[in-house]
């Protein structure tokens, strides 16, 4: 479980996050949702330590993260897998080298073991026989899947996904969502997904927190999100004309 | 001042939480290829012409019956070994390698590749920058040796083909009163220049924020700052090691 306590973050004169607290349970796909610019990614980056909040605590299964020294942080980070918005694959490495990268640096596995592991995870994300391709030779959806493969190739306990559906068509988005959901349950990891995609919210939102203007306004799941009674959240969900029409039919 | 402080902290961070030797060895070899081997052609061309021009212009300025022809080669040698080979090559390298390092790291930053390394628990400064600096410090003195030799050969070609002096006079000129310390000085300078170019360019690239436009700005800034640092270091080293 990941616990976030009273996180506040300011960039210059602009306060991005206001006193955010939440608990993200293991084996669940936890979603942080909200409109663009509400601080979702900043919150995620604060949780993994890429951004240092001015105030607040982050606990990984009870272990303090933000206050820990570099060595302890590195240790916790080795249990983390992260899928970035653009995939963040290393351009100069092949798909296989990208996925194998955490194993090369963080494990003492033999070459054969590493290749077996890489092939396993690539096959798990549906990318068999793409080992020798370069990131520039694969589609956006495939890049995301390689990103997921790289995130889970090591034995991780925590999976973070920053807008995994951005730039993808609805069908591919659905496949990525399903993959994240399945992996969360298969590996029993604590997953946190940042998204503003309502299909993801309804499809895999086992625990959802809604941010607006840097504040947590609502917490729940996909079953009760439509009955939240939270005006701001309803505006967010039913933002498009199509959704507004749909709302009238509900 | 803040930037200078950040630069030294950046350098300090290279030496904490390093990865295993094997990973660095492969990276250093790759960087040696990119920084050294891939710069060879440019260094060869600029050095050869630099030597040729130096010889022709020295001859132009030493037109006197009291000055023997071989002196042209002697003066050209001193200029090439002491200054032109290490410094002009450094400026050329700052343009080619410096911009490449800064834009490479800048692109990695804006595409979140550096964040990906950090999330994996890897010290990204050490992993990405240390191999570049090591490779530059290893390869640049070699480039300067090759550049210096080719510049002397360029001078030979220009001098003999245009009848400024005979081959015997040129060879005599580049050998007479030769002080091996000048080569040592050139190599010390080249190692210092390599460190400055690679570290400043890495610093500029690593802390790029924004998008493609900012990567271009970082790249330009890396070249400008590297050139200034090289010229400043050139003067300081001359004062320290020659006076």
Please supply descriptive tags for the structure shown above.
heterodimer; A: 250 residues; alpha/beta; 6-stranded mixed β-sheet; 4-stranded antiparallel β-sheet; 39% helix; 24% strand; B: 243 residues; mainly alpha; 9 helices; 83% helix
Can you put this structure into words, describing what you see?
The complex is a heterodimer of chains A (250) and B (243). Chain A is built from nine helices and ten strands. Chain A has helices at residues 40-48, 70-77, 95-106, 111-124, 140-152, 170-187, 198-204, 231-237, 241-249, and strands at 2-11, 14-24, 29-33, 55-60, 63-64, 80-83, 158-162, 190-195, 207-212, 215-220. Chain A is of the alpha/beta class. In chain A, the strands form two sheets. A six-stranded mixed beta sheet of chain A has the order 6-7-8-3-9-10, with helices on both faces. In chain A, strands 2-1-4-5 form a four-stranded antiparallel beta sheet, covered by helices on one side. In chain A, helix 3 crosses helix 4, helix 5 packs parallel to helix 6 (170-187) and helix 6 packs parallel to helix 7 (198-204). With 243 residues, chain B is mostly helical. Chain B has one domain. Chain B is built from nine helices and no strands. Chain B has helices at residues 2-13, 21-36, 40-61, 70-110, 113-119, 124-161, 167-175, 181-206, 212-242. In chain B, helix 3 (40-61) runs antiparallel to helix 4 (70-110), helix 4 (70-110) packs antiparallel against helix 6 (124-161) and helix 6 (124-161) crosses helix 7. The longest helix of chain B is centred in the middle third of the chain and has 41 residues, at 70-110. Chain B is elongated and about 70 Å long. The mean pLDDT of chain B is 91. The A-B interface holds A 45, 48-50, 70-71, 73-78, 80, 82, 84-86, 88-91, 101-102, 104-106, 160 and B 16-17, 19, 23, 107-108, 111-113, 115-116, 118-123. Chain B: Keywords: Membrane, Transmembrane, Transmembrane helix. Chain B: It comes from Marivirga atlantica. Chain B: GO terms for molecular function: phospholipid transporter activity. Chain B: InterPro entries: Permease_MalE. Chain B: This is ABC transporter permease.
